[in-house]
Amino acid sequence: KSRRHWLMRVAPLEGSTRLIRFVDRSEARAAEQMRVDFVANASHELRTPLATLIGYTETLREQSDEVDPATRDRFLSVVHDEALRMQRVVEDLISLSRIEAEKFTTPTDAVALEPLIDRALESERRTAQKRGSELVRDVAERLPPVAGDSGQILQLLDNLLSNALRYGEPGTPVTVSARTDGSMVRLSVSDCGDGIAPEHIARVTERFYRVDTSRSRSLGGTGLGLSIVKHIVERHRGRLSIDSIVGKGTTIHVLLPIAVS
Ligand code: ADP
């Protein structure tokens, strides 16, 4: 266990009042380490597809006479797929930094959830069809609006739904439900799939943390989806919880505060 270093600053204020501030240096060090790891992970995530792009385009350019049309098409589709992968990583990194930049402002717009749930379901419909998964919508009547940022709530729903489809067993349903829970609205997205082992549950919301990196990559994951969800929930003063059984499936719950009218 790391030793904690405490720094105490005593600054004189007006009159006899004194401000005593405790700064936990081990926390500051952990935050710095996280930043360093994040930059290293992000660079690594982009370096791999970039190397593929360079290798394949060099071959196409330098040996263009020897490459037959079928091989050329195959190379071009690899190049395209890798470029799309880089685009997804960069888009997610931009989202993450935007959400983080806004973390001290709590969104207060009254947001109706049904239209957002419908839009999220619509945008995943094709993927669901390809995987033979039914999308089930289970929304309570007269759901109150939540206090939030509609763009970010849509992004949260998109990320949870695409994970449920990605890690759900093909042919099994994915359910989105929404109902009131005290002063909050509970949104839940469930799948019947891989599940997440208990030792991974606490870590899957970390940036670039994946249970199985090659599986996530081959299914188009960036490793950032759940950390984006976590940041959105925190900004909304909401709560996130994960229920999962390995080999059975996962339900991710998000509680968002009901808007004050
Ligand atoms: P990714 O882009 O890899 O899906 P996420 O941040 O969205 O990244 O999720 C992190 C990891 O958590 C995933 O790589 C996967 O291992 C696990 N995970 C997320 N959602 C689910 C789910 N619904 N079922 C099983 N595992 C999941």
Automatic annotation (TrEMBL):
Record has Methyltransferase as a keyword: no
Reaction equations catalysed: ATP + protein L-histidine = ADP + protein N-phospho-L-histidine
EC number(s) recorded for this UniProt protein: 2.7.13.3
GO molecular function: ATP binding
Keywords, comma-separated and alphabetical: ATP-binding, Kinase, Nucleotide-binding, Phosphoprotein, Transferase, Two-component regulatory system
Keyword Translocase: no
Chain ranges of the Histidine kinase domain: 41-260
Superkingdom assignment: Bacteria
Enzyme class: transferase
Name of this protein: histidine kinase
